[in-house]
């Protein structure tokens, strides 16, 4: 009786979503979890469509979901299939997305959503787009590898990721390992400050922001948190303050998977030159750099990338659990 009543509420919630967000389809498991205030972790899909090669993209996406479940939270991978924005891709849908010819897949950030939906296209959602959708359905925690940032020379080219602006205007907590050092980390942190984003590091020696493949960017952040319970405490204050902006939690890559700083720096130099030679610009820059760094480091950067995403998913799940436990 109780169960069917709560299923009924789940269906009610579903009708509400479909009225307010007619292009968003929420998986029944996620709908139920939202209704029951269970811990949920949103996951992005640009990592699958543009961030990693086949087959590591699918393997990683599935492992990351597993990691969330092992830490007693529910994963909700968000992506777009034939113009439908899916929250909680099924395994079949995830495989369908991952195996589409890449030229048919669009990297969708905020500005891309209207035409991708209108033209019934498919694609991966960036951090910005994933935050938007997560917030629309009521998911507060989101895990990924790295966010976009201010590109090197970004102060001249104006290449500043829409992820940073989104963090300034959408109340979702993003757990990541910072931004890749293909970007300008100090300027990225400056920009986040301008946008009013609460930035914290997690279990970081010296309270420094991580550097994606390595643990220390050398940039101090205002606050370091030592446990999932401490993050949940911060997030509770953030919710009570109702600032409407996001939170960024920077988790350093586990020591045993960290790359050599010089190895990465050299690969970035090569990839940068290649990007300039090929005239790569706009949204193509990040995927181009990622694949070149992976090939110059003979896959070592990819292995580090996979390890840190899994770790971030585990941390995010623990945070989601701590937050849910406090709100019952
Ligand atoms: N950083 C990574 N891997 C990625 C991305 C960033 O290490 O796959 C993706 C994320 O989806 C991020 C997006 O939101 O790239 C940022 O792209 P842009 O810089 O074009 O905003
Ligand atoms: Mn850009």
TrEMBL record:
Protein name: Carbohydrate kinase PfkB domain-containing protein
């Amino acid at each position: 009786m109780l169960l069917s009543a709560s299923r009924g509420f789940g269906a009610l919630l579903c009708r509400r979503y479909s009225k307010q967000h007619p292009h968003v389809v929420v998986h029944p498991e996620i709908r139920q979890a939202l209704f029951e205030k269970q811990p949920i972790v949103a996951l992005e899909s640009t990592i699958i469509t543009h961030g990693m090669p086949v087959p590591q993209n699918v393997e990683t996406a599935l492992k990351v979901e597993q990691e969330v479940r092992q830490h007693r939270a529910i994963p909700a991978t968000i992506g777009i299939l034939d113009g439908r924005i899916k929250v909680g891709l099924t395994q079949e849908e995830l495989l369908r997305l991952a195996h589409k010819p890449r030229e048919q897949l669009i990297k969708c950030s905020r500005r891309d959503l209207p035409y991708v939906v209108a033209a019934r296209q498919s694609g991966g959602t960036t951090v910005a787009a994933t935050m938007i959708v997560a917030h629309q359905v009521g998911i507060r925690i989101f895990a990924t590898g790295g966010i976009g940032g201010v590109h090197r020379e970004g102060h001249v080219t104006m290449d500043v990721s829409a992820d940073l602006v989104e963090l300034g205007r959408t109340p979702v907590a993003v757990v990541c390992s910072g931004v890749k050092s293909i970007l300008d980390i100090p300027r990225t942190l400056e920009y986040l400050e301008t946008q009013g984003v609460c930035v914290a590091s997690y279990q970081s020696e010296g309270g420094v922001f991580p550097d994606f493949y390595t643990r220390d960017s050398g940039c101090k952040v205002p606050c370091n948190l030592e446990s999932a319970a401490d993050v949940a405490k911060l997030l509770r204050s953030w919710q009570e303050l109702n600032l409407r902006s996001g939170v960024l939690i920077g988790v350093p890559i586990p020591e045993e998977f960290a790359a050599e700083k010089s190895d990465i720096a050299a690969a970035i130099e090569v990839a940068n030159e290649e990007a300039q030679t090929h005239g790569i610009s706009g949204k193509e820059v990040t995927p181009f750099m990622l694949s070149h760094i992976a090939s110059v480091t003979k896959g070592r950067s990819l292995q580090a990338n996979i390890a840190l995403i899994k770790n971030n998913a585990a941390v995010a799940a623990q945070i989601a659990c701590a937050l849910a436990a406090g709100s019952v």
